[in-house]
Amino acid sequence: MRFKVSTPSWRMVFVFCLLSLLPTQAVAQEASPAGKSVLLLIPEDTALPAMATLVASLRSSLWEAQDGPLSVDVESLDLGWARGPAYTHALHTWYLAKYRERRPDALIAFRSDAIQVALQLRRELWPDIPMIVLSEDERLWEQQPRPERVAGLWLHYDMRATAELALRLLPGTRRLALVNGSSPWERARQEQMVRELQPLLAQRGLEFIDLSNLPLAELLERARTLPDDTTVLTFTFMTDPSGRPFVGREIARMWLSSSNRPCFALHDTVLGLGFVGGALVSYEAVGQQLGMLTSRVLRGEQEEFLTPLKPAPVDTLTVDARALRRWGIPRERVPPGVRLAFDEPTLWERYRWWLLGALTLSGLQALVAGGLVVERRRRMRAQAELLERQRLEKLAEIEARRTLDQLAHVSRVAALGELAASLAHELNQPLAAILSNAQAARRLLNANPAELDEVREALGDIISDDKRAGEVIHRMRALLKRGEPLQELHSLNELVREVARLLANDMHLRGATLRLALAPSLPAVQGDGIQLQQVVLNLLINAMDAMADVPVGQRQLQVHTASPRPGQVELSVQDSGGGIEPSRLSLIFEPFYTTKKHGLGMGLSISRSIVEAHGGRLQAESPPGQGALLRCVLPAAHTESSP
Amino acid sequence: MTQAPATIFLVDDDESVLRGLGRLLRAAGHATRPFASPSEFLAQLSGDTPGCAVLDLRMPGLNGLELQQAMESKDCHLPVIFISGHGDVPASVRAMKAGAVDFLLKPFDEQQLLGAISQALLKDAAARAGRAETAALHARHAVLTPREREVCALVAQGLTNKEVAQRLGTTEKTIKVHRARLIQKLDVDSVAELVRFVDRLGQG
């Protein structure tokens, strides 16, 4: 089975803007004026083993046959996964641009789909240069008139011969399964191969299992559960039905390791992976023959254009001797003339009896001891693995939590930064009052007689203003604090009140009114008080920002706390802004999503992370005509209720 | 000129600032009237009380600058001192351009405040005196008969009695009588003083 090894080429995407950066894959960059050049169009990535072998072999064959330097430009068209007419059109346009000033002496194309691209290119750019095609389709020129000056080879993927070989080796076969991919080219081949197999199936009364055009997972599942009397024929698997290209050799191995039945293939590039064998196409031989044909054409031998398609001598029936052993197929069944690959006696075969004797003796001894050791080691390893896994999980958890704590801190600092002007104002007010009172008191004491009552009042005011300033700083500092998150019991109502006090001045200045509806008896919540306050702070700041466009008298903010069901505590924040479009309800929790000119867009994202880290959830709703409603549900701590 | 004692109008939405400021100004010998909101202040505003206004710049509802405009539109010309809890440069520039006496950042020292207040009171007194004088001029001028006003205007332009008589189509003698009477009514001693009077009247 041949699998696509290429990753998708993005070439076409960048074609028109990144001309100079393109990988041209040319071997000899510049042909000397005297030297000849050929352009080779191949359908798939050059990294595919089949393509790589073919290109290398063609090249060396050309160089041997040609006197003097020769340049070979290779273009891989990436046709494996269906991309429709727009892609082929873009490809065509690109090659027109690229090769307009770079006329090759001959054009070579492999596979029917690449041949069509090449024909069109030649028609438009250089109708007079010779072309050499390598077609897997014998009836290429039955479907379209054969153009002039085209020489051709037919590369026969001989499924029939492969099936016959398989039946010779496994005479008990009652079912033949055929594995194939989903690209248009693969599907076209599928039809042809089924046609070829039809007489054989009828003649032997075999059941046919179609394993083409399946998703990979399903294909592998089917591989495991094939009926016992099935033999598997494989062609390629370059794409699944969704058009996803596959990374090849791994998938070949996956298939082989999943398959409970012997498998046959058509490409010598996968020989040795575990396939039993088949009529394997040797891309080296094909490349060599193609090179020789091209040389003759370049030398001007016109008779090459007479035959439509000459068969390429590629039907080498090959069997992997190791696979024969693996499936217990007697060697006698291998028909004469079939090449036996990897047929080297193993050490075991060579020294079987000596080894058997020695092994029996030492084996018996070792068996007992070994069994015990193995058992013990297995148990220890299992234990160690379990511990290690637990340790890693714990570490990951700690790491995630630490990242959240750091992010939460940064976001708090940012939120307080937004409040800075308001907080400065809030501090300057009591400071101004204190200074005025103090200076008034000094004047009152100097008066004659001293107005002591008034002085006493001034001092009382000074004390309360000082406390007020202290509280502002305390609240701010609490939020700026960065430390290990604590697990303590908190009253959600108290957290809300505290934040409301912090924001009171800002709200006042923004002309917003806050209505607190706090449930009188609410269970406590457990967690980090600062982080929980941060959630409340973010929700309130967001709500105020959401009302920036609302006239001053109508900026209303409602904060509710409740215990909707036992074991749960809920906080909801409703604003009177314009609400959130339904399509954005989930977006607002995305990091860096913001509709504001200031701010990072992290507030709600971090709030949700904090809430989730506390075992709760945070959701947004936007009831029609009511502004946004953010609802935060936290699990109640297992304890007595708190006021 | 006798005058009612100056009053300092204080407008600040922060109660303790309002109390502190009031106490300080009273201790410094000023009469104060505190208001906790711009609307209260505007409601009680009367144009004839001498003094000045100390306004907080950032208040909910009307801010200080809007309040200043509202005062002007209510024909209240009290000089204004702005105070603010945070250094908003564009706002302070606008305040000064709109004719504020000073812009003080909280917390401010009593010397700053008292200095600004005495400056504002001087400004108010001067403006008031100017306004009073103009009013007196207008009052005196209002006593003249229409004919005397005509004669007054022409004499102030420097015309002789004869020329005035020709303009008004009457005799020089009649003009002399008008002239003597208007000089008596306006309480001026010379033609030069009459010219100055008319001049100031034109400006007032």
UniProtKB/TrEMBL annotation, chain A:
Catalysed reactions listed for this entry: ATP + protein L-histidine = ADP + protein N-phospho-L-histidine
Pfam families, per database record: HATPase_c, HisKA
GO terms assigned for molecular function: ATP binding; phosphorelay sensor kinase activity
Family annotation (SUPFAM superfamilies): ATPase domain of HSP90 chaperone/DNA topoisomerase II/histidine kinase (SSF55874), Homodimeric domain of signal transducing histidine kinase (SSF47384)
EC supergroup of this enzyme: transferase
UniProt keyword Cell membrane, yes or no: no
CDD domains given in the database record: HisKA (cd00082)
Keyword terms of this UniProt record: ATP-binding, Kinase, Nucleotide-binding, Phosphoprotein, Signal, Transferase, Two-component regulatory system
InterPro entries with a match to the protein in the record: HATPase_C_sf, HATPase_dom, His_kinase_dom, HisK_dim/P_dom, HisK_dim/P_sf, Sig_transdc_His_kin-like_C
Signal sequence annotation: 1-28
Enzyme Commission no: 2.7.13.3
Residue ranges constituting the Histidine kinase domain according to the UniProt record: 422-638
Identification of the protein by name: histidine kinase
Annotated source species: Archangium violaceum Cb vi76
TrEMBL record, chain B:
Ranges of residues in domain HTH luxR-type: 137-202
The Response regulatory domain, residue ranges: 7-121
Residues bearing the modification 4-aspartylphosphate: 56
MF GO annotations: DNA binding
SUPFAM superfamilies: C-terminal effector domain of the bipartite response regulators, CheY-like
GO annotation (BP), single: regulation of DNA-templated transcription
Coiled coil: none
Keywords: DNA-binding, Phosphoprotein, Transcription, Transcription regulation, Two-component regulatory system
Gene3D superfamilies tied to this protein: 3.40.50.2300, Winged helix-like DNA-binding domain superfamily/Winged helix DNA-binding domain (1.10.10.10)
CDD domains: LuxR_C_like, REC_FixJ
Keyword hit for Cell cycle: no
Keyword hit for Transmembrane: no
InterPro entries: CheY-like_superfamily, Sig_transdc_resp-reg_C-effctor, Sig_transdc_resp-reg_receiver, Tscrpt_reg_LuxR_C, WH-like_DNA-bd_sf
Superkingdom classification of source: Bacteria
Protein name as annotated: LuxR family transcriptional regulator
